[in-house]
Input
Amino acid sequence: MQIYSGGAHNDDNWDAHTDMERNHNLHAAETDKPIAGLIKDLKQRGMLDETLIVWGGEFGRPPTAEYAEGSGRDHNAYGFTMWMAGGGTKGGVSVGKTDELGAAAVENRFHVKNLHATILQLMGLDPNALTYFYGGLDQRLVGVAGAQSIPEVMA
Output
């Protein structure tokens, strides 16, 4: 199941190109309690161990304003945050680090295919065995060369 927050255009979603503080305060206020409630409910019902929750977006934000005047931020593919809970993940673990400005990952860097491999493995699938033949190659969801899971986040 996928739950999507946002979905409209520009600041009606998490995109925050103009006023990041207003934007993120609005959307965090809309999602913090429901997500906390979901996790609490799953845990109370004994379902959190078998339910994987992945929270994130397709990119991060650079540490600088997008425009000369303003507080919006552009896209940053070099350092961003995702979090996971339940479903075989190890709680309270943080993996990786950005530079002092948050501009780029500098420690325990991972490609998004490693995140995908981790999710697939936590779902009980071998990420490197899921193939389909296309264009003369066995294609994989995690890329032709395959990918390793991120062991630090797995219980």
